[in-house]
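Example record

The entry below shows one chain as it appears in the dataset: sequence first, then structure tokens.
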Amino acid sequence: MLIYDQIASNKRKSYLLIGFFFILILALAFLFSYLTGLGGFGVIIAAFLAILLTLGNYYYSDDLVIAVSGAKPADERQYLQLHNEVEEMAIAAGIPKPRVYVVQDEAINAFATGRNPGHSVIAVTTGALKKLKRDELEGVIAHEMSHIKNYDVRFMTLAAVMVGIVVILSDIMLRMRWGGNDRGGGRASAFILIIGILFAIFAPIFAKLVQLAISRKREFLADASGALLTRYPDGLANALEKIKNDALPTQNANGATAPLYFANPFTKKKMASLFMSHPPIEERIAALRKM
């Protein structure tokens, strides 16, 4: 029952996130139009951009994540074992087989993305394919398949793209030469200008808070669900042990996409524990060993 409640909760949070994203983009675009003196025409542009970016975020966020990560479609002949394992786990989970991608990277990692089980992707690094045994790779794939089944990927992918767009808009606003709009009075214009600058400065911090809002408990739930699919928790635990000892950062990962990955894609030197997107790997291994 817990898993079904989590699925329903993830769906609700996804729609709320879409609505909040629309409002945020509308507010940013409106503020931009006001400060540049575009007036009523700027409001129309703001509404259009908000709708366009929100719809684009929902329907094409998986393609954006794939592009950013440098993932390429996995040739079925070259990566036959990978395709077989993804298909087996999809059958076990009772969902359609996701599209299969490969990331050229020596680090052991993987990620899932997509708006629903019918439009989903699983990507695995070449390092994982080389360094993991069959049962270990199966555990990693089962973990990512659980994220897809539980609708975690919709929420995490939307959050990742939203964070990226907010940071980009923030950067654009900070680099602008404000022309000033004095129609509302000097004080009013100065006040809105200050709000715009503060909003742009604090947007990256807000982006981090969104990332942290993606509960670490989802990783524990995906570990448990993945172990249920494979019936072999040690396979997933052994994969985490290898990642712990490997300690290679995932090259194309960034702060926005980090929560999508199977394990923290950064080394401990690059990211303080307070800002980690995943639970400590030792805790995940301990939980799996107890199953």
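Notes for this example: The chain has ten helices and four strands. The chain has two domains: 2-67+154-213, 72-151+215-289.
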